[in-house]
Amino acid sequence: MSQFPKRACLGVLLAVTVLTYIGCSSSTSTTSAPSTASTSARSAATSDEESVRPGKLLADWPTPRGVLLISGQMDGYLEPCGCTQGQLGGLIRRFDFVERLKAQNWPVALIDLGSLIKDPAAARGGFDQAKIKFGIALKAFSTLKYDAIALSPEDLKVGIGEAFAQFLNGLGDATKIVVANVRPGAGFESKIQASQIISAGPVKLGVTAVVDPEAIAQLNDPDKTELIPVVQRPDDVLSAVLAAMEGKSEYQVLMVQGPPEQAKRLATAYPGFDVVVSTSQFADPLEREPLMLNGGKTMLVTVGRRGKYVGVVGFFADAAQKMRFYSVTLDHKYNGPGTEMKKVIEDEYRNMLKGAGVVESYPRHDYTGGTAGATYVGAETCRLCHPNTYMKWSTTKHAQAFVALEKDSKPNTTFDAECVSCHTTGFEYTSGWRSVAETPHLKGNQCENCHGPASKHVSAPNNREYREPLKLTAEQANKNQVCTHCHDEDNSPKFEFATFWSQIAHNGLDDYTDPKVRQGIMPKAARTPGAGAEK
């Protein structure tokens, strides 16, 4: 049985058209009910419509003295891609939520757990796009006027020198990177600090963070010794940092870039912290309510991944309920104009992708698993011998996948490698999609995304050695999950193979009695890589 391409089989599915993929997310979760904390957390079942009204936010709260907005582990999801309904998150929605809080005259401070991106070496759009995305995320955070961001090993994977330089150049003076158990190299002390005293109106907050030393040790980077000369155990530094903050702040906050169990242990071991922010294993946090520790004094909170949720801690004058926590789902209700953020996320970001040529320069490799030396020829060439099958495909949304990008209301999505990877044919392969100018015959999701490059078969249709690797049954496609690289939980959360396969099944649509189909041709695309297919 032949192997199948990693980006294969978008042509297998009719009903779901993948649009842009800057970072999509989807969920049916609703906004959590608020929690109050003095000695315990209060759980109250509240519907999404009740908990987030079109008018006042957090309407069942009294007016707080100040609020702390907590985010983290965005994992590169700058905004929902729009490929399916109900997607959550995005920095434009986050911006709208913050602006609406401020419009209520609620003083807001903002902190983030870090992990703005995730594993750039394995990113869908490639390393160069992930690096650009990291810089854009920092600019967006500066636009939001974040006070503190925890140092994250994931963010350092763009290169420690690159990350540190972007911290200096991409963040405003007021935004600090905080980490108590890492000492940065010379020249970065002003931006990377052990702790930060920030203000939410009259409320003074001491904010610090720690990172798991093992995660730093695993970074293989030539600049690590010079730029991160000292990494200590969290327990070696927290007592002193906490004591220093307690003399200057009313509440103390700890962000833990490490396993969730480490955050829980540190929260228990250092009861001077009022709020401890833990990492999340899943995009949707298993618990939307905080875990109350140390007799109800310490809130242990999570905010999930992919930027789908933010947490809000309110600080109140009521001694019986000094803090409340609210887990907010960033859904369609936060679709304000967000003009300032739109300029960063939609215009500036994709203009940078276009200028850098991330689609054209994507690191490609030869196709494996099929006939050696076979190249992509495009559906128009397949049509010569498979006209009825071609006509079936042409009625599907996959045939219009690239057109969907060209007509997208978001600008320049055709220059976004994350989008293009699922809207063209053979994107990651040497003879696959490169650009409209070079490979126009590979627009959309065509036959070869499922069956593999076909130039050898086209040149000698009767050669079984060339023909057999192109065969793909429904059972094989389903078993090998060849469609879910693009039709994943983000793009197609309701995807079921059997449902959609029945709508595009194309077995037996053509017969091959005409002698012409046995003669074979040498398509232009196979003779001259990058040129258009035979007309």
For the structure shown, list the relevant keywords.
eight-stranded mixed beta sheet, elongated, 19 helices, 2 domains, Purple Acid Phosphatase, chain A, domain 2
Question: How is the secondary structure organized here?
Answer:
Layout: E1 35-37, H1 48-51, E2 66-71, H2 91-103, E3 108-112, H3 127-144, E4 148-150, H4 160-170, E5 176-178, E6 182-183, E7 192-193, E8 195-200, E9 203-211, H5 213-217, H6 224-227, E10 230-231, H7 238-246, E11 251-257, H8 260-269, E12 275-277, E13 291-293, E14 298-301, E15 309-315, E16 323-329, H9 339-356, H10 379-383, H11 387-394, H12 401-406, H13 417-420, H14 447-451, H15 455-459, H16 464-467, H17 474-479, H18 497-504, H19 524-527
Parallel strand pairs: 2-3, 3-4, 4-5, 5-7, 9-11, 11-12, 12-14
Antiparallel strand pairs: 1-16, 2-15, 6-10, 8-9, 13-14, 15-16
Largest sheet: 8 strands, mixed
What's the count of strands? 16
Average pLDDT, all residues: 87
Strand content: 5-15%
Walk me through the structure:
The chain is of the alpha/beta class and 535 residues long. The protein folds into two domains: 10-18 and 364-527, Flavocytochrome C3, Chain A, domain 2 (Orthogonal Bundle); 72-349, Metallo-dependent phosphatases (Purple Acid Phosphatase, chain A, domain 2). It is 27% helix and 13% strand. The protein has helices spanning 48-51, 91-103, 127-144, 160-170, 213-217, 224-227, 238-246, 260-269, 339-356, 379-383, 387-394, 401-406, 417-420, 447-451, 455-459, 464-467, 474-479, 497-504, 524-527, and strands at residues 35-37, 66-71, 108-112, 148-150, 176-178, 182-183, 192-193, 195-200, 203-211, 230-231, 251-257, 275-277, 291-293, 298-301, 309-315, 323-329. Strand 13 and strand 14 form a beta hairpin. Helix 3 packs parallel to helix 4 (160-170) and helix 3 (127-144) runs antiparallel to helix 9. The longest helix has 18 residues, at 127-144. Mean pLDDT is 87; it is low at 1-53 and 529-535.
